[in-house]
Amino acid sequence: MITLRRINGEAFTINADLIETVESTPDTVIRLVNGHRYVVAEPMDEIVDLVVKYRQKVLFSFFGGKSPLPEDGERD
Length: 76
Prior knowledge:
Structural class: alpha+beta
Number of strands: 5
Radius of gyration: 15 Å
Shape: elongated
């Protein structure tokens, strides 16, 4: 889930797994797989970053909160 703001500033949460498209028209419009549309205040790049962070959080939860990838400078 990611938290966004409507154009009037009202915050709401959306299931990031249901996002089908994000467009800049120039307003940012999110379309879900169920056909619902939301116009939000955040720019498209910020939404993409929020979705990536959400998915990292979900993935890392399977590994006890730690990244399964080697840290910088570490080798396998």
